[in-house]
Amino acid sequence: MGVKESRVSKKLAYDKKIREFLDTYTQVLIVHADNVGSNQLQNIRRGLRGDSVILMGKNTMMKRSIKVHAHETGNTNILNLIPLLVGNVGLIFTKGDLKEVSDEVSKYKVGAPARVGLVAPADVVVPPGNTGLDPSQTSFFQVLNIPTKINKGTVEIMTPVELIQKGDRVGSSESALLLKLGIKPFSYGLVVRSVYENGSVFSPEILYLTEEDLVAKFASGLSNVVSLSLAIGYPTLAAVPHMFANAYKNVLAVAVATEYTFKQAEEVKEYLKDPSKFATATATTASTASDAVPVAAAKEEKKEEPAEESDDEDLVSGLFD
Q1: Where is the composition biased (Low complexity) (predicted)?
Q2: Is 19 exposed, middle or buried (0-12, 13-18, 19+ CB in 10 A)?
């Protein structure tokens, strides 16, 4: 009986804790915790201490507590957390800046060896150079088709070799070789998969969008709206200027092809009749602009001359006074 009561009390305490967090916090990071040890998790807790708390537990218990709490409080927004509770996940409740919390979580990664049967989370490349292994170990390299040579009594890898590709399962030969070389190719930690904020759920990549990214996405969306509006002939605020421009081009084409004319088409029709007039006008404009500098200089000289004459007049008047 004591064991059953202990389990029940633990479940009740866990349910109370998650309910308090749901009432206190409006921001939650959903993180995957594969291959994360207890010591590593404690370090992360210490790093986040202040505005954030980490809650781990069974998905069934978390889902049940969330459903019951949503029913009792009427806060149905928290139900959006339930579809995210898949696999080995945890919840980070926070009042701080989501990007800063995500960056802090990513700092606590620990290197790990390539264990047999593990799905590689990243490519593994063995660098060239001296391995420190004696020539009797060349069989490992031969099995994996790694070019080597014996240099000063040790095995030396000649070129970089992509030993494992991301998504592949680690074989026994690859695992043994990496272990002999002392290479821990993988690193594990809490990985932010989704972000919950006031009922909205979005990808963590959104936290790292810059103003330039937002402007580019807005421009792309605006371009799509304009293209759709023009294709179906439906006027929108973004497409109206283009519609007017296209309409003007159509009317101008009609005016050029017929005797019909209007004010905005007259200059175009004159140009089509005699382009040389516009060439002369352009040359005249250019020459006028080039002559403007000496003319301006001459005007400045003329402004200075009256000042000299006034000095002479003062001298003459002074002689006869």
Answers
A1: 282-297
A2: middle
Task: Provide the pLDDT for residue 300.
Answer: 54
Which alpha helices (DSSP H) does 49-150 contain, by range? 59-73, 98-107, 138-143
Would you state the structure tokens that stand for residue 93, as one six-digit string?
């409740």
In the chain, how long is the greatest CA-to-CA distance?
A: 136
Please identify which residue in the block is written with the tokens 């800063």: 100
Amino acid at 268: V
Burial of 21 (0-12, 13-18, 19+ CB in 10 A): middle
pLDDT of residue 309: 47
Q: How many alpha carbons fall within 13 Å on the CB side of residue 305?
A: 6
- Separation CA 96–CA 51 (nearest Å): 6
Q: Are 30 and 195 in contact (CB under 8 A)?
A: yes
Nearest-angstrom CA–CA distance, 163 and 176: 12
Instruction: List, in order of start, the domains of the chain with CATH numbers.
Output: 2-109+189-207 (3.30.70.1730), 113-186 (3.90.105.20), 211-273 (no CATH)
pTM exceeding 0.90: no
d(CA 285, CA 290): 9
- DSSP conformation class of 168: P
Residue 230: left if φ>0, alpha if ψ -120 to 50, beta else—which one?
alpha
pLDDT of residue 112: 82
Burial letters 77-92, b for 16+ CB under 10 A, else e: bbebbeebbeeebbbb
Task: Give the pLDDT score at 206.
Answer: 87
Please name the residue ranges forming H helices in the chain.
Answer: 2-24, 38-48, 59-73, 98-107, 138-143, 172-181, 211-232, 240-257, 263-273, 275-319
Give the pLDDT confidence score for residue 287 in this predicted structure.
55
**What is the sign, positive or negative, of the torsion defined by CA atoms of 109, 114, 116, 119?**
positive
Residues of the chain with pLDDT under 50: 1-2, 295, 306-321
Residue at token pair 């069974």: 58
Read off the tokens for 33.
């915790």
